[in-house]
Amino acid sequence: MIEIERVVGLAFVQDGGRPGRLREGVPRGGALIASALSAANRALGNPGDAAGIERYGAMTLVARGDVMLADDDARVWTLRDGERVELAWDGARRARFVALRGGIDVPRVLGGRGTLVAARIGGLEGRSLRRGDVLRAESEPMTNVRARPWLAHEGPIRIVAGPDLAAYAPRAIDVLTSRAWRLSTRSDRTGTRLEGATVPWREGAPSARTTPMIAGAIELPPGGEPIVLGVDHPTTGGYPVVAVIARVDLDRFHAIPLGRDVRFAAITIDHARVLLGQSGGTT
């Protein structure tokens, strides 16, 4: 077991999410940066999607019994009862991850262990972690995958235009890709607001309609700035979608700290599929 002695900012139990439940109004959720959680888990021999801690600030963890911990830099700590580890916060990434050997043992709710804050389910009592919380180790099956730290590649975030281009002026994609955008500090796991300009609407554009949504969709409220939907996104939305972040770059986008800038580059959907296949991911 581990006890949380100190936590600065937010922290949650998160895992690989709840796939296949969008029709029930439940977003996939899970780790904001799934590949970073996987890196921490793999360092301990856990399955990559085992439940761990997603943190947005510094933490101090104390062992209650002998435990092994790892972070997304593949650093591993073997702690004896009463020993502690100080996890600093350098702001280099939007979120960081800590894994416990065997995974974190919290109840499965709707097929996942991760915290869905909006619904107050999953994780530890459906809430953020706080001082005094104790997390027990699960007995997830061990693997033999070699540990590697999670590294974000450089370069612009790649997007695929559409599907609602009829709602925007012809130069909408040019506006998205020709400048840097600031990630607003008003963002959260539901969506990331982009500051710096507005994407022009087409005169006489069709009215908004309710359609299914996915993580990475770039919506534009009327007269507002773009919003990139996050892992806890609403399962339906009424604002038109001007573009979608390529799945291969979604973790990289979510790793950018709030307050920093991001640039986009447009690619075709066929190119996005090739990149995803090369990365070993699935649609």
TrEMBL record:
For this UniProt record, the keywords arranged alphabetically read as follows: ATP-binding, Hydrolase, Nucleotide-binding
GO molecular function of the protein, one example?
ATP binding
Pfam families (alphabetical): CT_A_B
Gene3D superfamilies from the entry? Cyclophilin-like (2.40.100.10)
Q: Identify the residues that the record assigns to the Carboxyltransferase domain, covering every copy.
A: 23-283
Keyword presence, Secreted = no
Q: Which InterPro entries match?
A: CT_A_B, Cyclophilin-like_dom_sf, PxpC
Please identify the protein, giving its name as recorded: Allophanate hydrolase 2 subunit 2
